[in-house]
Design brief:
alpha+beta, three-stranded antiparallel beta sheet, 3 strands
């Protein structure tokens, strides 16, 4: 994911369709080299919304600016 401002990232999240009621997702955030940075738990209404929300939280709330990509899975299912 390229360098987006928090507002741009939120706009991308808002533009995504809601596929179901909000559910808990485990989001694994990595840097450019694929190294694990953090695991976040978020509530979202689709897997892609969860992925972007986890990335946003890790980068802008927790200040890990090296955050580059993320993958998300419903809680209770393998990542």
């Amino acid at each position: 994911m390229g360098k987006l401002t928090e507002e741009q990232l939120q706009a991308k999240i808002d533009a995504l369709p809601r596929e179901h009621e909000p559910r808990r997702y485990r989001v694994i955030v990595s840097d450019k080299h694929g190294n694990h940075l953090a695991t976040r738990i978020v509530r979202a209404s689709s897997q892609e919304r969860a992925r972007l929300t986890g990335l946003k939280v890790n980068c802008y709330v927790f200040g890990q600016k090296r955050s580059f990509d993320a993958r998300a899975a419903l809680m209770g299912s393998p990542v």
